[in-house]
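Q: Convert this sequence to structure tokens.
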Amino acid sequence: MMERDLSWNVKNGLLFKKVNLRQYPNCESAWKLFVPNELRGKVIKECHDEVKAGHLGVRKTAFRVKQFYYWPNVIQDVKQYIKSCETCARFKTKPFIESQLVRNKVFGMVKDKMERCHMKSSNVYNKKRNVGSLQVGDIVWKRTKYLSNANKKFMAKLAPKFEKAVVTEKLSETVFRLNNIFGKPIGMWHIKDLKTL
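A:
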């Protein structure tokens, strides 16, 4: 004996399918009216073209259809119908093309402003830029970084701001390895903390 499929039901000569939609969890009934081929266009027209339907897009029209009706490939049929809808073709622009044009225009404007700001800033900051023209063996003034220490009765603001050092290695145009004047390594220093004699 064949088992009866409980997701289908006939009521008053109409065929219903039980479908639970995630987007409509509070829908009164999960039973949707099965629509034969010849009536599907009429149902989509009712859910898309009517005044209260408002010529919505594919997704919203398909959800509207699915609230009350069922047939396989609803979304494909709705897409096909909306593609041929004259009202939508006349009044609605393709959102991707429009957004792409707007995005390109806005991006171009922002890019131009950023480039102008960069040029303006670089004109100011490049005047203060210290180019790394130091070589190995050069003697430089290195900025000191002392901390005050009350226990040792030492105040950093009274200490010298610079001390002599010797460049022992050029790591890049702006970073150098230094020794103090007694030959002890004192680490890597950026050119912003160095002055030539």
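Residues 8-91 form a domain with the Endonuclease III; domain 1 fold (CATH 1.10.340.70).
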